[in-house]
Amino acid sequence: MKQTEKGFTRRGFLTGSALALGGVAISAMGCAPAQKEPPEKKPTTDEPTGDSSYTDPWAGHYASDWADKVTETVDTDLVIVGAGVSGVVAALEATQSGIKVELLEATNTAGGNGNFSDCVFTFGSPQQIAGAEKAGVTVTADQIIRSEIELYDYTIDGELWVDVIEHSADNTQWLLDAGCHTEDIATFYGGTLGKTPTVLMWRDGVGGGMTSAMQPMLETLKGLGVEPRLNTRGQALKTNDAGEACGVYAETKDGVLEINAKAVIFSGGGWAASPEMLATYGGYDMDKTDIFCCEGCVGDTLKMAAAAGARQDAVSRGYMFGNAITGITSSYVMQYHPALWVNGDGRRFANEDCGEVCHDYTGTAVRSQEAVYVILDDAMIAEMDKNSTVTTNAEGQQSKSLKDEIDAAAADSANADVVSAASIDELAKKIEGATGLAETFATYQQYCAQGHDDLFGKDPQYLVALAEGPLYALRVHQTICLSLGGINTNRFWQVVDEAKKPIERLYAVGADGQMVYRSLYNLNTAGGHMAINFDSGRYAVKHAKEHYL
């Protein structure tokens, strides 16, 4: 059960959040299981080289680990590991081009995180042109690209953004032809977020990716004679004597499947469903971090690539963030800008309206602190409830109001994340370590009275004084929805080795091979990740067809 809030101005919070996927001849070169020494690089660099306790992070993902366990062998043109958005797009593009495909999916359901997606970025399409005209905004490609590369301090591949935008109008028409359902014109994300009106929302709205995008594409693919092999988990890449990819080994309920192919595409959806990898690569404290990600995104493809010599830099890649509060179903409390935020010491640490342009900024803010509390009063909670839509679950039960949930959570002695009190002094006593809360509260009230935030410059329209009591403190936990990247690729989505040279016949697309995000996902180009899913899936196949198939 979740509440879905509608956007409004002044003391309102903002709309929605992305939280919110036949036999052919093989090359004359032998396709033998690659025997490799454990890699010199570790996932992290905090252990001394030569440590006798070193454990190979790619163990179990070498071809030699699976070659003698094969129970079935299949030959095809192209094997795609992962049936999320980019994998299904690649399979559809390939099948439409007459390429024989095997599409593998580790879980029992195709679609991956694409099932929960909201929209797709579009540029140069009739829908985007109409949307810009309606909004009275002029949008140019160079503005978008510069905004993206500046945001990440020029550490991303600007040429990839050039390609994505150049292909965007054609990709938009392709996805419509594939059966996807979008709104008629492009808008700002959720009507208000982002920098440009370049977003095509799925017809079924926020989280409508399953019915608006994935199911239609899968039906179109099925009509062409291809369906994903479900519960088939890719485990190792096969390479030939020249070091080129030539197939994969996959684990099924019946044994080990060997697929020989002329090219391989990794589309595993990243690794945000793996607590171990989130802790290792992202540095997340998993005791206070929740996972909201497709269960199949556990990093198998990154490990398969790295075991075959691919360059990986998951430590420096990006994430889609979210926020959660124990006992509260609404995911938008952090998007209510008039609230007061404090850290574990009871002190403010950021402007509370930072999510006005991009909701993910609230996740970054939460991550910067050991603990974060949202302070609310009854009037604020009532305003959120007033602008909420009550939903029902599968059993027909209505969701509780936010007020009811907060009261229930505060009364639950087992829930230390939601507390209430008659005054700020009493509230401070209930939050261990929040010694600065009363002083912070008094100073913030002064800022509200004068209409200017001297500390962080919060927008004056959101400077609304809180009542003296009752007051509520809701501790926020970070949620991770998606990892972005980790396997290094070039402009053509080819996986590269440590020398940044292509590993021939191997591609990484979608969340696996993102080279356009660092540190976080942003809404400068809202829907950009979905656009890259479509672009990488299609153009990896186009490159493979031209050079290998």
Key features of this structure:
single chain, 549 residues, alpha/beta, five-stranded mixed β-sheet, four-stranded mixed β-sheet, 13 helices, 28% helix
Count all strands and give the number: 20
Kindly report the average pLDDT value: 89
Largest sheet: 5 strands, mixed
Provide the spatial order of strands within the biggest beta sheet: 4-3-10-20-19
Q: Distance between the terminal alpha carbons, to the nearest Å? A: 47 Å
Total count of helical runs of at least 4 residues: 13
Rg (CA only) = 25 Å
Low-pLDDT segments: 1-29, 34-48
The assigned structural class equals alpha/beta
Range of strand content: 15-25%
- The backbone outline, from C-alpha atoms, is globular
Helical percentage? 25-40%
Explain what you see.
The protein is α/β, with parallel strands linked by helices. The protein contains 13 helices and 20 strands. 28% of the residues lie in helices and 17% in strands. A 5-stranded mixed beta sheet has the order 4-3-10-20-19, with helices on both faces. A 4-stranded mixed beta sheet has the order 2-9-8-7. Strands 13-14-17-16 form a 4-stranded antiparallel beta sheet, sandwiched between helices. The chain is globular and about 70 Å long. The N terminus is likely disordered.
